[in-house]
Amino acid sequence: MIQAKLEVWPGVPYPLGATFDGRGINFAVYSERAEGIDVCLFDPSDCSQEVARFPLMDVTHHVWHRYVPGLPAGTLYGFRAKGPYEPKRGLRFNHHKLLVDPYARAIHGKVNWKAPVHGYKVDSKDKERDLTFDDRDDAAGVPKSVVVADDFDWGDDKPPGHIWRFAVVYELHVKGFTARHPGIPEKLRGTYAGLAHPAAIEHLTKLGVTSVELLPVHEAVDDGFLGERGLTNYWGYNTLGYFAPDQRFCSSGSHGEQVREFKQMVKALHQAGIEVILDVVYNHTAEGNELGPTLCFRGLDNPTYYWLMADEPNRYLNVTGCGNSVNASHPQVAKLIADSLRCWVTEMRVDGFRFDLATTLGRTGKGEFDRRAAFLQILHQDPVLSRVKLIAEPWDLGPDGHKVGNFPVLFAEWNDRFREAIRRFWKGDERQAAEIGYRVTGSSDLLKLSGRRPTASVNYVTSHDGFTLHDLVTYERKHNEANGEANRDGANDNYAWNCGVEGETDDPAIQALRQKQLRNLIATLFLSQGTPMLCAGDEMGRTQKGNNNAYCQDNELSWVDWRLDERKSRLFEFTARMIRLRKEQPVLQRRNFFLGATIGDSRFKDLVWFRPDGAEMSPEDWAAPYRRSLGYLLGGDAIASRDPEGRRIVGDTLLVLLNAHHEPVEFTVPGVEWGAEWQLALDTAKEVEASGAVKAGAKLELKGRSLMALRHPA
Fold this sequence. Notes:
Elements: E1 17-20, E2 24-30, E3 36-43, E4 46-55, E5 58-60, E6 63-69, E7 76-82, E8 85-86, E9 91-92, E10 106-108, E11 144-146, E12 169-172, H1 174-178, H2 192-196, H3 198-207, E13 211-214, E14 218-220, H4 224-228, E15 239-245, H5 257-271, E16 275-280, H6 297-305, H7 331-346, E17 352-355, H8 374-381, E18 389-392, E19 411-414, H9 416-427, H10 433-440, H11 444-447, E20 457-459, H12 469-472, H13 508-526, E21 531-535, H14 566-584, E22 598-599, E23 601-605, E24 607-610, H15 619-623, E25 629-634, E26 640-642, E27 648-650, E28 653-659, E29 665-668, E30 677-683, E31 693-695, E32 699-702, E33 706-712
Parallel strand pairs: 12-13, 12-21, 13-16, 16-17, 17-18, 18-19, 19-20, 20-21
Antiparallel strand pairs: 1-2, 2-6, 3-4, 3-7, 5-6, 7-11, 8-9, 10-11, 14-15, 22-23, 24-25, 25-28, 26-27, 28-33, 29-32, 30-31, 30-33
Helix pairs in contact: 7-8, 9-10, 13-14
């Protein structure tokens, strides 16, 4: 090691991290229990070579800090924390292990699992080997933190600011969406620059989505066991750096270039009117359980960052299923998460967040979920974070972890009750009518009492986690053999009708039935109250060959296939048409829940449910086990609205007819008091756009498992 002679000043404790001011760098890192912390600097041309080391001698409010004049942006660094290695007390300090800065704005290099990156002796024969101490230096195998200058020119960038009821969310993976796109230059595919390319943005705008929800882009770590199988953590739910854009998605470098490229992507999407929402993983980190590596938080202050077992502090409370659980109830950890979120909003200009396993973030010191937990209160009070889109995945794997409908008022929530109801209804399951009634009208039973509106229900049929839409109607069971776990991984979540034939087929009749089922699922999604979310590629029949847990498949199995045949093109056009219909009809973008009560004219209600014979449904009808055919009217005359440009519009009344029975069913259009004449807007039994006039009292035949929508002009 070359010991550089550096002038070192006391510096300041805030902001945390490494801050470049144009003349030097201020280092600040939190540790309540450390006995000393060193900063190590590394050669940018050979990041395994340590060129300088100096201690952070000043401590303010448990923050160790020091200023070093003359250091430039781009400096590579890491921390070493000194203190007791007493796992039985939850303390795992090991100054032989280089640590990533929790506040690093960029990270260079990857974990080398052949290096001694564990704080204990991995090859020890001790029954509790995590209690042993490894004194080998691991700096050559640990990623380095990068000092980044904040000098990006945002020009006239403005957030699109789509209000919730106009939002259409599109969940995508930065690499998976662009890796095979023929219109994107090969060197840009799979990167932030690829997603910013006009060819990628054109698809999004043609489809009509307003917001992209990006699978994790925080710097993540590939699990060691996956590397042994020749696989990677493709989804990225294994975070190391909460402030750093993942270097694997950058086309231009990893010494801070990833920050600039990410900002350029956000700017390009904003110019196209598209919001950027990040899927964020603050519930656990890449360090795993007690047998995991020491890369950052564990080595800085293990009891601060993680939930530890009260009676065995060398063990981790694992309510996430990922080895550890972040202790968001600790003031410093809550601060770190809030600082990270604020950084992504103010410095990176993203428009919102989807919180993975959000229940964990609302657990208190007693381990119970509390909607008034410290972190959730921070979000409510913060003048920046309270104004962006906040979406909860409202569950984790801990006790009483499923909390759909229980998050605070600022949150929207992934609604798995919607997903399950829609799938089961179109499969033809019994006793689904009442559940369908709640789900397509905004899930008032889950959300109304908390003071939220229908848009708080993020409706989806598929997401990254599970079958693609095509596979949902094609496979009877999961096919995850490529993951190397003997098909034991992944949930058995296929509860949709697939025509009784397992897998792909050349039979045109079966293909036609499956295409109709896809149209049913897509149409129901966009005709429902709430915020619709579409998974990337589902609009083009993307397949993962039945793999419903492709988290480790960074290959063509997971990437969107842009080779469109006639069938896939028709599905895309149908999906785009459904999004247009949704945007054109204010009654599908309601601010408030339906009243179901008389409004104005004594014959008119804002929501009415019908039997196939045209009569209103009774309580007995809802309870009928074989109720697979029903219709509902959405009263548009009661809705006066304004479009995104502020123009006042009055919506049509819509009549939606559903037949989940396998045989045709005759529907009678309701009496003239509900509308004398209707225009056919949709028939999923047909691949082409439906049209034609239908009078009150007319008889309509709905094919087996099909949907019709009719509109009555305002």
